[in-house]
Amino acid sequence: MPIRVMLVDDQVLLRTGFKMVLAAQPDMEVVAEAGDGVEALETLRSTAVDVVLMDVRMPRMDGVETTSRICRDGEGGPGEPKVLILTTFDLDEYAFTGLKAGAAGFLLKDVPPDELLSAIRSVHSGDAVVAPSTTRRLLDRFSALLPVRRRTAAHPELDQLTGREREVLVLIAQGLSNGEIAAQLVVSEATVKTHVGRILAKLQLRDRVQAVVLAYEIGLVQARGA
């Protein structure tokens, strides 16, 4: 079955461009479109969707609120879709809050077609699409939006992590890939993947993007210049 994609953007020309790219793929199908968050939620009630490409700035309901209602409030309809935030990066400071709201990642609006397709497939398979280094740059830019929470009060489950798992979490938040973490800790990449999986399970996080957000929120790491 092809990946069912929904396009949510108030710019018709942008939706048309994305639709042309996706329509040329044998494993993808655009099953729905919407011009804002309100229309998107209404459509999702009756349409099964796997991945939503979500704009941030839209009338009536923006992409952050819509993402939260899909990912956190269960309003994604029968398909329980994953959400990719679409952002211009330099302008949409609150795209970061979209990641906090449950988005699986973010894309630039001028993303090359091959990267767009790869991102959709990755999200559909359960992965996050934000590269570690890109996550770090985004957090460095928008860390002021993060309310710092006291670790013991807000996340006592951190105490479930082993010393090595805590070390891996810090390195993830510093923007290192699994391979780079493996090299630094002198372990195999498979071992790092195992640690990452255990960290996500213990902290009840969906992907490494949320792990990075959490690490910043609780003060395990700080943005450059902080």
UniProtKB/TrEMBL annotation:
Sorted UniProt keywords: DNA-binding, Phosphoprotein, Transcription, Transcription regulation
Domain spans labelled HTH luxR-type: 154-219
Keyword Signal recorded: no
All residue ranges annotated as the Response regulatory domain in the record: 4-124
Pfam families on file: GerE, Response_reg
SMART domains named among the record's database cross-references: HTH_LUXR, REC
CDD domains, sorted: LuxR_C_like, REC_NarL-like
Modified residues (4-aspartylphosphate): 55
Entry protein name: Response regulator transcription factor
Organism from which the protein derives: Streptomyces spiramenti
InterPro entries associated with the record: CheY-like_superfamily, NreC/VraR/RcsB-like_REC, Sig_transdc_resp-reg_C-effctor, Sig_transdc_resp-reg_receiver, Tscrpt_reg_LuxR_C, WalR-like
